[in-house]
Amino acid sequence: MSFVSGIRDFFGLDIGSTALRVVQLRGTGELKSLVRYGYMPLEGGISLSDSAADQQKLGQAIKQLVSSAGISTNNVAVGLPSQKVFTTLVDIDRLADNEIASTIQLQADSLVPTPIAESKIDWSVVGDSAIDPKKVEVLLSSVGNDYVEGRLDILETVGLNVIAFEPETMAITRSLVPNGATGMHMILDIGNRATDLVVSMGGAPRLTRSIPTGNETIIRSAMQNLNIDEKQAEQFVTKFGLSKDKLEGQIHSAIIGTVDILVGEIEKSIKFVKARYPNVTLERVIVTGGASTLPEFPLYIANKFGVSVEIGNAWRNVAFPPDKQNELLALSNHFAAAVGLAERNE
After folding, report:
1. 141 and 204 Cβ atoms separated by less than 8 Å
2. SS3 174
3. Which domain holds residue 89?
């Protein structure tokens, strides 16, 4: 959802539920150079709060991070969390862009779940329809006006100029899926409260989902099933994950039920895309966020679905000094959205 086009000097801002992340890149080709990046934890869930006091705190935290990271521009592309965005794939007759826009406006009431007058809608043609050769596939996204305007107020108050809002699922696809990839890829990003699932083909998302199972849910399972406190549960889950040969497999047994709920949703998604694209094979699953740091989870997914699984590298399209490599790769699983936002071609 671009407000201003043609601006090349901007940074990406990922407002997560537990942290802020910023990335500024330079360049116009596929490989861009890293200028600045930064990270700041957020306390007390202020990014999820509607209270004026918390929104003010969030604004000040963003301002502080932009300053401390040395970001040299006020122009910003901002991520929209998948829980706030409705995304769907629709088949539309092959028409000129302005005619597709008119068609979407006419059909919008039946396509998006919120009233049109209360929503911002964006769309892009992602390819030929898999159902009807006379049609094209259009990825349609909508988000509530109130949410976007609230974010806009916070950012403008601290002196930032928002050039675009973009669903985080689009941003992580841009940063994690290899350039020029033609096959089908699935991205799994386990966040604190939910898991983002994206299936892309040709670099464009064809299915995006927010599954309400995240790190908190997994840790809560360990707490309840092992009768331990939150801090200890978090330590055990982070250290042992799905390993069956550590602590006699107690952590595995405590969390596998919750993990399998998530895996069941992944299986439904795979069945959906295989039904729609029967001639396309899922080439690989790319894991990031908690999906890449939960021990044995990538292997569990690989064995479950018989597919190649790789740890996502958010910096794959970014040039940086060699002495920064270890530091940046250690942060990669937290920065996919911020990097993808910074990689936008305005």
Report:
1. no
2. helix
3. 85-144
Number of domains in the chain: 2
- CA 165 to CA 12: how far, in whole Å? 10
306 and 188 share one domain: yes
In angstroms, the CA 200 to CA 218 distance is 27
In which residue are the tokens 């596929």 written? 30
The CATH number covering residue 308 comes to 3.30.420.40
- Enter the pTM of the model: 0.92
Q: What is the mean pLDDT, run by run of 10 residues, along the chain of 346 residues?
A: 66 95 92 96 88 94 97 96 91 89 86 88 90 91 94 96 94 90 90 93 89 95 96 96 90 96 96 92 93 94 96 95 94 96 88
Residue 2 token pair:
């671009």
Q: Which residues of 240-272 are buried (b: 16+ CB within 10 A; e: fewer)?
A: bbbeeebeeeebbebbbebbeebbebbeebbee
CA 52/CA 164 separation, integer angstroms: 23
DSSP state of 178: P
For residue 120, the domain's CATH number is 3.30.1490.300
